[in-house]
Amino acid sequence: MKRPFIERRLRELEERRSRLILDLAVADEQLAYLEEEADDARVRHLVAETPISEREGHDLQRQVSAMTRHRDDLLAQIFRVEIAQSELSSQTALGE
Predict the structure, then answer these.
(1) DSSP states along 27-52
(2) Torsions phi, psi of 22, nearest 5?
(3) What is the pTM of this model?
(4) What percent of the chain lies above the pLDDT cut of 90?
């Protein structure tokens, strides 16, 4: 590949990586909030022992699970971008 193409692609990958890192920070904050809410819901259910409190706890736990999957996906995307950056950087270093 030609050097200008590789350099442009590296810049694009770095921009994507930066956006993903920001998204990950937001997901971490949301996950922490949801985990706290789910913990509170479990305590409320222990005290109230009602079907509504149980359902609320299950709903929040599903949200925690979904956010955890989203966060894991973001981490995987960041990892893939970093691999692509590394491969392109090595091509640049080798003069290809």
Answers:
(1) HHHHHHHHHHHHHHHHHHHHHH--HH
(2) -65, -45
(3) 0.87
(4) 89
